[in-house]
Amino acid sequence: MSNPRSLVDTQNSFGWFSIGLHWFATLAIILLWFVGQSISWQSVEQIDARRTLHITIGLIAWLPLIARIIWRYKSGHPHVSGQTLLEHRLAKAAHHLMLLVLLVMLISGPLTAWAMPDHSSLSEFAFIFHSNAAKALAMLVVLHILAALKHLMFHEDETVARIFVPRKDATQDEG
Ligand code: HEM
Ligand code: HEM
User: From ligand 2's centre to the CA of 97, what distance in Å?
Assistant: First the structure.
């Protein structure tokens, strides 16, 4: 971490900023997913409290999650050495799809909550997006983890390592 440039991404490496945002977002999304899913399992007396817990965590994590999406679009996608252009584009498309679904969740969640008391049909409409996006994101994350495991087991490359620490030989120019 001595090199301040390792804070930001370069052409072949994620910086600490991207790495921190990736793992913060992972924890927040997993927590929000389980708390959100558990709302409907509650008894009538408990359901409001569980919904409020989900909304509170969602609002606390909202800004960093939005920042994480904007940062990825602004900062680009570092190239894994040895990866073909097609593989690079496929990985990039899969990551962008996850971020798009995340954006849908971050808009539809607050809308569901805001419209709940006075605009129940708008709330129900937003909830359809929120609920289906939650399922889609869960499936994409499972595929994403399987892809990471595939790299870990069958490819001798740095794909998994580079989302934990920046490369020592990171190129100096930003990616
Ligand atoms: C990545 C972020 C989020 C994830 C993964 C997530 C996940 C979920 C899940 C799985 C459900 C249950 C869906 C169902 O029953 O089919 C849910 C419901 C809900 N979420 Fe989220 N959520 C996120 C963000 C937010 C945010 C930011 C807000 C608002 C600030 C929010 C507000 C709500 C509300 C109001 C419900 C409906 C609760 C009910 O059943 O009455 N969510 N969420
Ligand atoms: C245990 C869970 C997870 C593991 C093991 C994991 C693993 C990885 C790995 C190895 C990379 C690097 C890929 C590359 O070098 O091109 C990566 C990047 C990425 N992951 Fe995950 N991931 C996890 C959870 C998530 C979740 C929940 C999301 C949901 C949004 C996500 C979205 C992304 C995105 C968008 C990237 C591109 C870089 C970035 O913007 O952070 N990951 N992940």
Answer: 12
- The predicted-structure confidence for 125-167, as pLDDT tens digits, reads as follows 999 999 999 999 999 999 999 999 999 999 878 889 999 999 8
Global pTM value: 0.93
The answer to whether position 173 is within a domain reads no
Q: Residue 134's closest CA among 160, 102, 100, 86?
A: 102
Q: Which long-range contacts (CB under 8 A, 24 or more apart) does 36-44 make?
A: 36/134, 37/134
CATH of the domain at 98: 1.20.950
Is the distance from CB of 36 to CB of 55 less than 8 angstroms? Answer: no
For residues 31 and 57, is the Cβ–Cβ distance under 8 A? Answer: yes
- Which of 10, 5, 24 minimizes the C-alpha distance to 80? 10
Give the ligand at the shortest distance from the Cα of 16.
2
- Give the domain extent around 55: 4-163
Distance 101 CA to ligand 1 centre (A): 13
- What spacing in Å lies between the alpha carbon of 26 and ligand 2's midpoint? 8
